[in-house]
Structure prediction request, 93 residues.
Amino acid sequence: GHTREDVVESLKALTSAVPDFKWQIEELFTVNGDIATRLRDTGTPVKTWLGLEPTGKRVDFTEFCSYKVREGRFTEMRFLLDVSTIAQQLQAR
Prediction:
């Protein structure tokens, strides 16, 4: 899992590398204040991201996230995305 500070830093890095990054919520569940989501993510990397060089191609992929919420604040985040699918989408065609 990632701490709140880790999440803030990763979001700063993400928006720097993929300025038009968008999350679309496809499913959202809550259990005892915790949140789980299935997201559709899109964007066009302009800097190295996830160890992948930008190619001008747009990416479109599924991400799964879970968040722990305590006293009204996000305290932990876990996420899963398929980097190999992203790499394939960035390859020149």
Observations:
- The CA atoms of residues 5 and 82 lie 24 Å apart.
- The mean pLDDT is 91.
- The radius of gyration is 14 Å.
